[in-house]
Design brief:
Length: 103
């Protein structure tokens, strides 16, 4: 297994990516060494990274494209196509939101 590193702007290794199994074993040793202030972190908001309203609504609902497709009675490929479009019609967005309300 190889350990991956993330380099700083000057090309020197700055961070190490560990498999979660290794992190879990070392957690008790690592956590006390971390120098961080929880108030420095802001909650993750998908809207900061996802601009497509269909993709955003699906992500917020915590479902896959396949599940949304099933609820909309369309193919997964169609949902993917919607999520890659720059503009979504209000009618289509309403259909997506209606499908997301189904259990």
């Amino acid at each position: 297994m190889s350990i991956q590193t993330i380099k700083s702007a000057n090309g020197k290794p700055k961070y190490v990516l560990l498999p979660i199994a290794i992190y879990d074993k070392l957690r008790d040793q690592i956590v006390p060494e971390l120098d961080y202030d929880p108030s420095d972190y802001v909650p993750f908001d998908p809207a900061d990274y996802v601009s497509n309203p269909v993709a955003l609504e699906r992500i917020k609902a915590c479902i896959s494209q396949k599940e949304l497709a099933t609820r909309m009675q369309v193919s997964q490929a169609y949902v993917s196509k919607l999520e890659h479009q720059e503009k979504i019609s209000p009618k289509t967005l309403l259909k997506v939101k209606t499908a997301l309300q189904l259990n």
